[in-house]
Amino acid sequence: MIRTAIVVIFFAAVAIAVLAMTGDAGSATLTWLGWRVDMTAATAALLVLFAALAATIFWRGLIWLLEAPRRAARARERNRRKQAGEVLARGFLAAAAGDGSEARRLAQKASVLAEDSPALVRVLAAQAAEAAGDLPAAQAAYSAMLGFPEMRLAGHKGMMQTALSEGDKPAALRHAQSAYDLTRTARWAWRAVLESKLEAAEWPAALDLVKGALERKIVTPIVAERARAALLAASAAGLEGSDDDRTRSQALDYAMQAARLQPGFAPGVVMAARLLAADGKVGRASSMIEQAWKEAPHPALWLAYRDLRTNETPRERAARLAGLASLSPEARESRILSVEQALIAGDPAAAREAARPLLSEDPTARIAGLMARVAFADGNPDEARAWIARGAGAPQEPDWSDLDPEGRAFAYNRDDWARLVATYAETGELIHPRLERAERALSDLPELPVSYVESTPFVRAAETGAPVMPIPDDPGLGEMLQPSVSEPAPRRLGLRRRLASVPRASK
User: Fold this and answer.
1) How far is it, in rounded angstroms, from Cα 109 to Cα 107?
2) pTM beyond 0.85
3) Which of these, 86, 92, 182, lies nearest to 130 by C-alpha position?
4) What burial class does residue 492 get, using C-beta atoms within 10 Å of its C-beta: 0-12 exposed, 13-18 middle, 19+ buried?
5) Which of 9, 130, 217, 352 is buried most, with the most CB atoms less than 10 Å from its CB?
């Protein structure tokens, strides 16, 4: 204010001086207590302006002196708030670091300094008690927070966490449900309630929770769709084995909804296709599997597709499977399916050609078994046995583990379905519980005859002295079995015998 007055008076003084020098300066007379002062009008105006400036400065100075105590109090309050903020920050950091004793000391100090932030002090006290391992004190602090509307949500969360740490799941669920009812956006409360429903296999209740979370915008639409698809598939799996027609119809409805929500979700599609085929709706089942194959090829899909029709010749079946593989030709499963359909068609040369791209990757047990079948169909049982030996120690494929030894796909228990719902909803990926538990899956290694046949390269080499074709796993084995060049082996056609896979005892 004083700066503004000085600027205004300065410009006014300049204007008066310019006016006095360029025109009539005028005259002014001041009479006071017998004194008379004569001056120009410009001088009088300047005196008035400077007197006003002096009065302003005096008044502001007087106000500044009178407000000094209040100003000092405000400064002390600012310092106290600054200290309280620092103490609270250090206390929360100590609690996060697990230093319970330091967090408690800072919480007590904050209770004195931060009188205007009781909510933060209570939260710090509760977290400090948790960090110190004093659960009763933490529960008391969180319980006290329930009495304040602005702290009620944090109190429920703290009570839920302390209840879980004590193994009291019912109490934790009560607090989570209360928090979910209290606010529309508490994702942690929704997740806790959902997990309890999944653990109890209450699929309809979990579906309602997912729909409510979508309405409250707790989850995105894509997460909600994936969660609903997995929950519907879990519901269908629980009803599929029933002998009641109405129950099976309900299972089909659930599976169809799951397939419509997520066309690439293999468990829902396989279940829906299986139930449709049982009702004689093979065409609809084929269309669903074809759509799923375009989205995400899975071995359970082509196996279900293969078994949709039972009244066709091998060549017809092979042609149908080739059409399925052509829907996603660059996918690895489509390349494997191309080999399978060639074997079904009885064309080992085409099967070997289709399997060539698979040889560039590290073989799994499934690929080793597939190559063994190709080799055996092509008339090379020794190569087939080498592939079987190689596959015995090869790793399993996660997707192939979804098929149990009886060939049933996705035969999950309710805990597996609960995990699948949570994982698939968040990531869009399947879990593989049979692989995790190291359980047996559908056999991927073929069973071949124990003894060699007479047409193998080993027998022909022994009779003719020709070089022996090496086994793929041991390129040097052929040199070991090749007869010496200086002493060619005689041909003894009359003494031909079967060569057993078990070596003969030395004499």
Assistant:
1) 5
2) no
3) 92
4) exposed
5) 130
